[in-house]
């Protein structure tokens, strides 16, 4: 007889069937998958990265093949400090931690800042990956909505371990947080003594407008003294959406005491980010591969955004409202009927051959059933149009059922 095995940790009971369904969608034939959030692989500079990888191993075997320092290759930390520094935002290597993707920054923030039940103030709807990263720590959430007229940043952040915001082209809504709301959030973080996590994987993906200043840049104006940045904003960046996700290179820029705490957390997570990846990332940043890749990415995504939105205009107006995003990877469609249930609509969508992401998975409370996230980066224009046509058929059938 086999003895019963120990149970899995309790947080794993907190299952989300919807997430599972849309993650499986990628392997269903003929389905148009508008649910994902992946970059377009044809934008990857394959030959250039192959050469950088060869050079990393041949010319820098110590960096590429050994264990690098936990906090990252010093040259990459220096390069990122130089990239983000402004006259007001003074950065040194001690302000920079290299992470295994932006995702690890979120995970480490959870490890370093959350005891069970701790409060997170989260811009909502929120990135599903962040909610997943923090789920094992059983936090409680206070949602906030920076684009609403009644947004009160002090009330939003007071008493929270940290605020979490994606000011550039939020995942899932694709919206920008405006300059005034950014400035107000930074003041509130200082006034309330709360850390403010600024998650910025999409900051390079402005298609039509000049980039707004980051929360950290705005916050630097409040710094006194002439030492390195010591404020509350914990900025997280990544190469995933501006070069390739497969290197798994991201970074955190923050006060040295935060970098030190996250470094302790990282030691117990993966000990270090791949030195080979870091060396390629360094050469891609300094040698211009990142800058060269970006114009192609922007023009492809802009055309796909336009194709998706044109198809939406043609087919979805009777039931859905949305704003055309000025960058990023997503359009957020909100049902005109407040009684819409997009969890239930998803079944009809799947039967019609289109997969979309329902809003419930991005709501920390799991309750929002009124909206959908549509991705435009991964499908060619004709497939985007076909996906929208199928979504219109599914919506019409769903609404007719009553
Ligand atoms: C808002 C947000 N944060 C962080 C990430 C993590 O990205 P990566 O780990 O690939 O850098 C993503 C990925 O989609 C994201 O949308």
From TrEMBL:
Q: Keywords of this protein's UniProt record, alphabetized?
A: Aminotransferase, Pyridoxal phosphate, Transferase
Q: Which classification does the entry list for the species? A: Bacteria, Pseudomonadati, Pseudomonadota, Alphaproteobacteria, Rhodobacterales
InterPro entries from the xrefs? Answer: Aminotransferase_I/II_large, Class-I_PLP-dep_aminotransf, PyrdxlP-dep_Trfase, PyrdxlP-dep_Trfase_major, PyrdxlP-dep_Trfase_small
* Location of the Aminotransferase class I/classII large domain: 32-390
The Swiss-Prot or TrEMBL record lists the needed cofactor(s) as: pyridoxal 5'-phosphate
| Signal peptide bounds | none
Q: What organism is the protein native to?
A: Albimonas donghaensis
Gene Ontology BP terms: alpha-amino acid metabolic process
Fetch the Pfam families from UniProt. Answer: Aminotran_1_2 (PF00155)
Q: Which GO terms describe its molecular function?
A: pyridoxal phosphate binding; transaminase activity
Q: Which residues form a coiled coil?
A: none
User: What PANTHER family does this protein's entry cite?
Assistant: AMINOTRANSFERASE, KYNURENINE_ALPHA-AMINOADIPATE AMINOTRANSFERASE, MITOCHONDRIAL
Question: What name does the UniProt record give this protein?
Answer: 2-aminoadipate transaminase
Q: Which domain of life is it from?
A: Bacteria
């Amino acid at each position: 007889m086999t003895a019963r095995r120990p149970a899995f940790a309790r947080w794993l009971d907190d299952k989300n069937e919807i997430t599972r369904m849309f993650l499986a969608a990628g392997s269903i034939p003929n389905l148009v998958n508008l649910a994902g959030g992946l970059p377009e692989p044809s934008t990857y500079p394959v030959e250039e990265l192959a050469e950088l990888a060869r050079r990393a191993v041949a010319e820098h075997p110590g960096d590429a093949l050994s264990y690098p320092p936990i906090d990252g290759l010093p040259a990459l930390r220096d390069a990122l400090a130089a990239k983000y520094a402004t006259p007001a935002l003074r950065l040194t290597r001690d302000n920079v931690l290299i992470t295994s993707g932006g995702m690890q920054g979120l995970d480490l923030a959870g490890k370093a800042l959350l005891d069970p039940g701790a409060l997170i103030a989260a811009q909502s709807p929120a990135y599903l990956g962040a909610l997943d990263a923090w789920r094992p720590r059983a936090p409680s959430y206070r949602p906030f909505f920076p684009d609403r007229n009644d947004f009160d940043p002090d009330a939003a952040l007071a008493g929270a371990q940290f605020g979490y915001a994606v000011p550039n082209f939020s995942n899932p809504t694709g919206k920008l947080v405006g300059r005034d709301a950014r400035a107000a959030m930074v003041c509130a973080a200082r006034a309330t003594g709360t850390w403010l996590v600024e998650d910025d994987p999409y900051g390079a993906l402005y298609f039509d407008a000049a980039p707004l200043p980051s929360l950290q840049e705005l916050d630097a104006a409040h710094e006194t003294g002439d030492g390195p940045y010591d404020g509350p904003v914990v900025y997280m960046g990544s190469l995933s959406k501006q070069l390739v996700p497969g290197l798994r290179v991201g970074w955190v820029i923050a006060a040295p005491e935060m970098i030190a705490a996250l470094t302790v957390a990282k030691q117990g997570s993966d000990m270090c980010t791949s030195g080979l990846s870091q060396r390629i990332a360094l050469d891609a940043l300094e040698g211009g591969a990142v800058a060269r890749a970006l114009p192609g990415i922007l023009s492809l995504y802009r055309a796909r955004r336009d194709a998706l939105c044109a198809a939406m205009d043609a087919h979805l107006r009777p039931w859905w409202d949305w704003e055309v995003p000025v960058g990023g990877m997503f359009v957020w469609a909100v049902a005109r009927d407040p009684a819409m249930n997009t969890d239930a609509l998803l079944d009809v969508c799947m039967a019609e051959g289109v997969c979309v992401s329902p809003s419930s998975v991005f709501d920390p409370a799991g309750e929002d059933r009124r909206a959908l996230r549509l991705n435009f980066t991964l499908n060619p224009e004709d497939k985007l149009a076909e996906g929208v046509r199928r979504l219109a058929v599914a919506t019409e059938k769903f609404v007719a059922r009553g």
